[in-house]
Amino acid sequence: MPGWESDFNSQSDGGDRFAPITNVSLCSKAMMRAVERPLHLPGFVCFYGPSGWGKTFSATYVQLNQGAYYIHCQESWTRKAVLLAMTKELGLAPKKTNYELIEQICQQLASSKRPLIIDEFDHLVNRGAVEMIRDIYEGSFAAIMLIGEELLPDKLKRWERFHNRVLDWIPAQPADFDDCRSLSNFYCHEVALADDLLRFLLKECKRATRRIVVNIEKARVAALEIGENEMDLALWERLGLVVSTGDAPKRRFIS
Question: Which DSSP state fits 120?
């Protein structure tokens, strides 16, 4: 690999900004396999799973630590919008036609040898833009990570020529206790959260990383407000704290 990777890593210092959870490791290793693959092997990897399991968080780590280009697709994007977003991320002055844009993107990916992450890839599937992404891959042979929801692998079966170019399918994992502890240590270092509280949050949040982080913050704020630097399940309950699960609270009538 050229010198950009070591230069990028020395500038980003990304590892200090991310909790070392399971999905960060899975995502990072998958991208590295694609980057380091022999050229006779395909270069797509697909990282998929339910919302809130830390996929985008993990992809951001890979972006910073492996120098990946990154685009986060939106539902409203047309094919042209996708290509314009890519040229912007790649630091290119966009040309006019889709053909010219694809040529630009392919040349930059091939010359830089940097990987590409396409988040919310389901939107491109819904737009029928899958073959356009295959064109970019075929024109650059770049390592490309696709990130999407749980059913993304099944959706891609409609495009056989695309589907059989996926090197690896990586299902995101629900958080476990070690992840919960890592998140607590990272986001709540002022307050020590007891194991019984973390196990309770893990269960109530159905092992969803985003919900766990929300409730760790709730515990941190509540503890600091009363001058505590520790919190266990008993204190959580004594303070009347309620786990944020994403469900709207029931209506309460005030007399």
Answer: S
Amino acid at 4: W
**Rounded Cα gap, residues 115 and 47, in angstroms:** 14
**Helix (H/G/I), strand (E/B), else coil: 205:** coil
Residue located via tokens 């972006």: 63
Residue 248: partners with Cβ closer than 8 Å, 6 or more residues away: none
Name residue, tokens 């692998």. Answer: 153
Q: Using an 8 Å Cβ cutoff, are 62 and 142 in contact?
A: no
What is the distance between the alpha carbons of residues 249 and 129, in angstroms, rounded to a whole number? 39
**Unique residue bearing structure tokens 């607590």:** 184
User: Using 50, 70 and 90 to split pLDDT, how confident is the model at 3?
Assistant: very low
CB atoms within 10 A of CB 142: 23
Domains of the chain with bracketed CATH: 4-171 (3.40.50.300), 177-238 (1.10.8)
For tokens 């599937």, name the residue.
125
186 vs 198: CA distance, rounded Å: 14
Please name the amino acid found at residue 113.
K
pLDDT tens digits along 161-198: 999 999 999 999 999 999 999 999 999 999 999 999 99
Banded pLDDT at 19 (limits 50, 70, 90): confident
